[in-house]
Design a protein that fits this description.
Strands 1-2 form a two-stranded antiparallel ribbon. With 124 residues, it is mainly alpha-helical. The protein has two domains: 61 residues, Orthogonal Bundle (Arc Repressor Mutant, subunit A), CATH 1.10.10.10; 37 residues. The protein contains six helices and two strands, in the order H-H-H-E-E-H-H-H. It is elongated, with a radius of gyration of 19 Å.
Length: 124
């Protein structure tokens, strides 16, 4: 798992795909963090295996090596396992009850479930 600061910077790198530290800072909201802070966080992300770089002399251009989709999957599995004991039913129940879904949102969930059911039946 990434810290909130690391995740914020990864979101920028996923968006830009290839960036120098200054370009990352430019995409961050105000107040802008100091250059050294962002540079340090990116180097930590590199040590964690999320980011790599191309060197241009003393300057580095960074790029993500873990995709947003792969990170989302891993984070979702952690969320499901750590907070809902691995139960998809508990997760959906939480969303329905806590988020106070409107009728349109409930219908959208039902459509997704029906679509998944059809896909599973087609595979049989």
């Amino acid at each position: 798992m990434l810290t909130p600061t690391e995740e914020r910077i990864m979101r920028v790198l996923w968006q830009l795909e290839l960036a120098f530290v200054k370009e990352v800072i430019a995409k961050l909201p105000e107040p802008k963090p100091p250059y050294n802070t962002v540079s340090s966080v990116i180097r930590l992300l590199e040590k964690k295996g999320f980011v790599d770089h191309n060197a241009f002399g003393k300057t580095h251009q960074y790029f993500p090596i873990v995709s947003k989709k792969a990170y989302s999957k891993r984070t979702f599995k952690d969320l499901l396992g750590n907070y809902f004991e691995g139960s998809h039913k508990s997760l959906v129940s939480f969303i329905v009850n806590e988020e106070k879904l409107n009728e349109t949102q409930i219908l959208e969930l039902e459509k997704l479930i029906k679509k998944q059911r059809k896909q599973k039946q087609a595979k049989k």
